[in-house]
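Thread: Cytochrome c-type biogenesis protein CcmF, structure

OP (GT): Posting the sequence first so everyone is looking at the same thing. Length is 657 residues per the record. Can we get the structure tokens written out before standup tomorrow? I want them in the notebook alongside the other entries.
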Amino acid sequence: MLNLISWTSSASGALGQLSLLGALLFSVAGLLLALLGGARRDPRVTEAARRATWAVFALVSVSTLVLLAALLRDDFTVRFVAEHSMRASPTWVKVTGLWGALEGSILLWAWLLAGYAFILSVTLRRDALRPWALAAMFASLVFFVGVCATVASPFTPVATLVADGRGPNPALQNHWMMAVHPVLLYLGFVGLSVPFAYAVAALVTGRLSDHWVVVTRRWTLVAWALLTAAIVAGGWWSYETLGWGGYWAWDPVENASFIPWLLTTAFLHSIQIQERRGLMRSWNVWLIVLAYASTVLGTFLNRSGIVQSVHAFAGGPVGPVFLGFLAFLLLAGTLLAAWRAPHLRDDNDPPAALSREGAFLAGNWLFVVFAVMVLVGTLFPTIVEAVQGRRDASVGPAFYNAFAIPLGLGLLLLMGVGPLLPWRRADGQGLWRALRPLLIAGVGAALLALALGVRHPGVLATVALSAYNLLGLGLLTTRAARQAGGLGRTLRAQPRRYGAYLSHAGLIVLALGLAFSGTYRRDAQVTLNMNQGVHLLNEDLTLTGLENVTRPDGRSIVARVLIDGRPFSARLNTYTQGGDTPFPSPAVRYGLTGDTYLVMTGVDPEGQWASVRLIESPLVSWIWWGTLLVCVGAAFTLVTPRRAPQAAPARMAPATD
């Protein structure tokens, strides 16, 4: 560590490295103080641990700002800058270089984790969970800050000063979404550290009542919403950057972000049962432990080099370290849960199948099975390589679709009927009353879709279940508004409930977008000669011009095409550090009913023709709009409800004879 510090070789690197070492020192001290404060039940020692989070956050912030300044100033005395940036890169690309390579991405993770720990330190209640929650946060900080300060330091000075850097990965500067997707993803991943810390604190202290899940609900919801936005933003980046017209390929790194989302979604639903009925305590502990551990698994897959992915970093020394931390989390969680197993028993009998909690439990099982199947498909090639020594094994989309479609439809089915069922138990007649209007709406929507030409069974089922869900949400909203005396009043009184309804509506819109765009996408390729029309996919295409554009960091060839009279400009970008490798930048015209997507695949050096690929995808935009509804709904659930003013007590009439 100390040999990384050289004020002569790199003043920026020395300052950044010293700040990391200071942050590591305060992280270790904070961990020890938190453990001591919890063991002795000494609030003064716990207060010292709490204040240590402030020092860690300040020092990691200094390191992050130093690296960002080095990127913006083209300080090539820092090896990370020399290897992953260049003078000609636009400013926004230099900023994204902070997380565009392995060492910087781990530093960003550590900074966000320190930020969450700081916010937690100023919001923690003064209770028995306080020191142990801090200790769990410090344990994560010791690991991530320690990795940054040692095996993955971004502040190593260069051996020989260079005039210009190598530049970033060209694929990561081809679209501005690179400035959004990774940050959202890290915010979601790191956000799960807080509910995990509270779960550890509850297990250590034995205080496994509803308190810890109530305290962490908002933290979990924020992390879940950020993770949802991050996953879909990554799909948008893929859609706009890779030139294939898709948004999800069941790529190993994509899967690694999806697994925590599935487990966290299950956790958000099951904590409602613990709050309301005192059930599923063991479930909730395991779900949040596995959700946080799966974020570390995703980080391991992304940075170890053991999986092949356009999203993954090259292999480095951090893989074994992350694997060890993952093993530590799982072992510690298992031992704590086994130790407190008698205290994790539920207050009441297991939920009845025909009840709201029964529907939630069934949904939880589907989420967990979904996550396990995605994990199996993701790790299968790695397991084959470890056992047989060959790296040609792969798991394609057909494997994932075989279980994802039925499980997704099952979740849509439960999502509609669950909120309509009563707590504890519903009789058969009550179940039929709840289901009958929903089933009628679903069958009616499926028949209408069939009349309009939809023939695919999975799409018909999605349409039916979407109508079924939307009617259920409408009935719930109408019923509550009638009881409260108006929609506005019930929205103010129960924002949590109606935020959840809005998020569910967003998921329905998203599901329709996935079903139609994945099933009814049309794709064709053609070579266009200059000013000659071609009819393709019921569209008229005409190449009207080819233009060479020189940029400071490379050049672009722009094909100007008219599609049914509307102008499209598709690009092939090359970058200085990428040689002659072209990176497509498609032209997309978004529409409510479908997108027209044009990507250039080849071009004549003489400027007489261009080969293009035309893709027509129905309802793709519904994915982006549905995600927006999900996130707005999640934000709405965080609003503090307004309590209706209590009526003044009636005055007693004077007594009379």
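GT: Both are above now. Quick notes for whoever picks this up: Strands lie at 522-529, 533-536, 539-551, 554-563, 566-575, 583-585, 587-589, 594-603, 609-618. The longest strand covers residues 539-551.
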